[in-house]
Design brief:
The complex is a heterodimer of chains A (128) and B (524). Chain A is mainly alpha-helical and 128 residues long. Chain A has three helices and no strands. Classes of the chains: A mainly alpha (128), B alpha/beta (524). The A-B interface holds A 37-45, 48, 115-117, 120, 123-128 and B 373-378, 381, 385-392, 479-481, 483-484, 487-488, 491-492, 494-495.
Chain lengths: 128, 524
């Protein structure tokens, strides 16, 4: 849908920020799933490092894909160059929202599920 | 010795929960290979349980639950190594000729002069007398000894009113066991009386039972030269006859019947078992004893150990009745003609003992893989904090873990240059003619290299597909592994489990492993 009015732009910006939060949450859910699929290992178990790496990759990829999608697919629908600039600023803010939900939500869930595989991303626990 | 070895393995499984066992190992042949192996297994057990001897306690529903106190006694035949030396035949012939004549009447010249250091060589008429004499001499001696410590405990138990149960493990066809079973109760009772100045009445207070283990193996017959050199050698062609005569004695003798409340009769359908078949290429002469005599284990020895278990569970009221009436139970267990052993063949199926035995035996085997598979090395990796999600166990002593690994090498298999050498359970399986004859899935015994061990699915191929244990498996999922499933549940148990009063960190760890394994195998 082409954006031709200011109220439509503002509505688009609001929606994009909401989608940014949802994308962060979905990425977090994917990260939890991948963490549960990474098996524990015997001997020197460094599987928590593998889960940590996947957590970082998924978070960065989700934010990057969201930003690029908005920039290449959504922004061209805005007719006014100035409004495109405003949307670009919103897109930058959405990286923060995306990563904010992902990181803050992730850390909270890691502590909540400290004894599960997702929580192992935090590393060595204090003595039980 | 091998029966005691099996008993220790039963203790490791947890079959003797909440029990303090005082084990007295009696053998004339103190350098015997099986005696050495018993000591290895015992050392591995007690130190796996707790390195601190003073703080070892009996536990329940876990591995290594029994508290084993070990003693050993070997009559000293280093200096006086024949009957004639011990009896001081020369002086006796001069000073008490009638005693010497009596000895000559019952003992042949060869029997009076063979070397006693390797045992009594199936000369039970000599052995009974010599063993009795040795025990009394040890009790009279001013020197402390394991035997005296054992007797002190027995005296305390009798005087304290706790009615101890004494179980004798031995065969009826060989030397030391066959010689000792008839006289042990009287010998230890007399010895205890000497030590307590007549205060202790062991025969009156304790309850006695014994195995009557008949001939089940054979070995190479000696050559004429060997017989001439050794004077007396036990030959396995006489074992069946020895067994028959012994059984007649135990059925008939009044003293024995008044002493023992229960006898466990056991045997096999033949003597085809060669206990040293793995060494047969190296054996060039008959082994009378010593370090070279290291017989492989046999299922009948496990049955003997299970007999001890049965006796300890025996109803005290019934034993008291037997004791006061001078009655003796003669019990036996028979299996069907297929040759396939079930768990109930060893422990019966009263009160689900067979399921309990299956559970504990299987879980110990699973623990052995977790501990000794080099790709898992679970216990050591937890101790070194290489399992970041499992904390609180870095206090386990490194030596305790080493002893645990050593125990499992003796129990299951050990790695010798990539090939797997037999431990106790594989020898037992072989003695039952292999295949699926012995309790567990035949795949448990089918791998022979480390590579094959890593591929073995102990999650689903531990028990046989029918009978007790057929439903005791767990799946691992597409991305998972046996260890992954185990560790996930272990962490859950670690944080959600009930608080424990176990003070030793290692034993607390074993309890968690035991509980976790029972849960993942769906054993109620």
């Amino acid at each position: 849908m082409r954006i031709t009015t200011l109220p439509a732009l503002q509505s688009l910006q609001d929606e994009t920020m909401v989608y940014a939060a949802i994308t962060g949450a979905v990425a977090l859910a994917l990260s939890i799933l991948v963490a549960s699929l990474v098996a524990y290992k015997g001997r020197d178990d460094r599987s928590y490092i593998t889960r940590r790496i996947w957590y970082v990759i998924i978070g960065l990829v989700a934010a990057a894909v969201f930003y690029v999608y908005n920039d290449l697919v959504v922004k061209p629908d805005i007719t006014n160059a100035g409004w495109q600039s405003m949307f670009s600023d919103t897109n930058l803010i959405c990286i923060g929202i995306n990563l904010g939900v992902y990181i803050v939500g992730g850390i909270i869930l890691m502590f909540v599920f400290r004894h599960k595989k997702f929580g192992s991303i935090l590393g060595k626990e204090k003595n039980a | 010795m091998r029966c005691i070895e099996s008993l220790i393995h039963l203790c490791a499984m947890g079959m003797f929960d909440d029990t303090e066992i005082h084990l007295l190992a009696l053998d004339t042949d103190k350098n015997n290979g099986n005696f050495s192996r018993l000591k290895e297994v015992k050392e591995a057990y007690v130190n796996s349980k707790n390195l601190d001897k003073a703080n070892r306690t009996a536990l329940t529903n876990t591995f290594f639950s029994a508290d084993i106190k070990y003693y050993e006694f070997s009559p000293n035949y280093e200096k006086k190594s024949t009957f004639n030396d011990v009896f001081n035949y020369g002086n006796t012939k001069y000073n008490n000729p009638e005693e010497a004549d009596l000895a000559d009447l019952v003992l042949t010249d060869n029997v009076e002069n063979f070397n006693l250091r390797h045992g009594y060589r199936a000369q039970t008429h000599l052995g009974s007398m010599m063993m009795y004499h040795s025990i009394i001499e040890a009790a009279r001696s001013r020197m402390d000894s394991d035997l005296k410590q054992f007797l002190q405990v027995l005296i305390a138990a009798c005087n304290g009113g706790s009615d101890p149960k004494v179980f004798i493990l031995g065969s009826v066809f060989g030397g030391t066991g066959a010689s000792s079973i008839p006289i042990i109760p009287q010998a230890i009772s007399e010895a205890a009386s000497i030590m307590s100045n007549g205060a202790a009445n062991v025969l009156g207070r304790a309850y006695f039972a014994s195995t009557l283990l008949t001939a089940y193996f054979s070995f190479k017959a000696p050559s004429a030269d060997e017989l001439k050199e050794q004077k007396v050698i036990a030959t396995s062609d006489k074992f069946a006859l020895n067994s028959q005569v012994a059984m007649m004695f135990y059925d008939d003798d009044t003293t024995v019947k008044n002493t023992y409340q229960r006898f466990y009769m056991m045997g096999t359908d033949g003597q085809a078992w060669d206990p040293m078949v793995r060494e047969k290429d190296k054996i060039t002469k008959t082994i009378t004893g010593g370090g070279d005599q290291k017989n492989d284990s046999h299922y009948i020895e496990l049955l003997a150990a299970c007999a001890a278990l049965d006796f300890y569970h025996c109803d005290m009221a019934h034993l008291k009745e037997n004791k006061s009436a001078g009655e003796t139970d003669y019990v036996y267990r028979a299996i069907d003609g297929s040759g396939k052993f079930e768990f109930k063949d060893f422990v019966g199926n009263q009160d689900n003992y067979d399921k309990d035995f299956a559970k504990k035996f299987g879980m110990l085997i699973a623990f052995s893989f977790l501990c000794n598979d080099p790709d898992i090395d679970f216990v050591e990796s937890v101790r070194c904090n290489k399992q970041k999600e499992i904390t609180g166990f870095d206090g386990i002593d490194v030596n305790q873990v080493e002893y645990l690994k050593k125990y499992f090498r003796l129990f299951n298999v050990r790695n010798v240059n990539g090939e797997l050498a037999e431990g106790w359970i594989r020898q037992i399986h072989r003695s039952a003619n292999g295949g699926d004859n012995f309790l567990f899935n035949p795949k448990l015994f089918a791998f022979h290299t480390m590579k094959e061990l890593r591929k073995y699915d102990w999650n689903k191929n531990l028990y046989r597909g029918e009978g007790v244990g057929k439903d005791w498996t767990f799946s691992v999922g597409i991305f998972g592994s046996k260890f992954n499933t185990f560790k996930t549940k272990f962490i859950e148990q670690l944080h959600n489990g009930a608080p424990t009063t176990i003070t030793n960190t290692g034993e607390r760890f074993y309890k968690l492993v035991y509980d976790t394994l029972c849960i993942i195998y769906n054993i109620n």
